[in-house]
Design a protein that fits this description.
Number of helices: 0
CATH topology: Immunoglobulin-like
Number of strands: 10
Low-confidence stretches: 1-8
Radius of gyration: 16 Å
Distance between the termini: 30 Å
Shape: globular
């Protein structure tokens, strides 16, 4: 299934085969989904764009921890940890470009405020 829509970006270890077909699915692994909060904004009553925060969902289906590098979002905003199913007490913000580790068989939801 393809990811569609303005501002949506997905990353997966699956590779494209010659001819445009996806090869066999790899073993469960890490996947990242980023949504750009500035793409296709709603408008307020004065027709000004309403910009949303940028969510980032990191999923690790492996039995071992997985490391991700956080993308820059056009500003110096830190990524806020909203949910971590491996360590629910984790709330320390992470800077763009810094690595973040997602525990085995878990997911993390981060948010870059606008």
């Amino acid at each position: 299934m393809a990811l569609r829509g303005p501002g949506a970006t997905a990353s997966s270890p699956r590779r494209e085969e010659p001819g445009g077909d996806l090869g066999p699915a790899p073993a469960p692994g890490p996947v990242a989904l980023y949504l750009d909060g500035t793409a296709a904004p709603d408008l307020d009553q004065r027709r000004r764009p309403l910009l949303d925060d940028d969510p980032l969902i990191l999923v690790n289906a492996c039995w071992e921890p997985a490391a991700f590098s956080l993308p820059g979002v056009g500003g110096a905003a830190d990524w806020q940890v909203e949910l971590d199913t491996y360590d629910p007490r984790r709330t320390t913000p992470v800077a763009a470009g810094d690595p973040v580790t997602v525990g085995p068989r878990s997911l993390s939801v981060l948010r870059a405020p606008r």
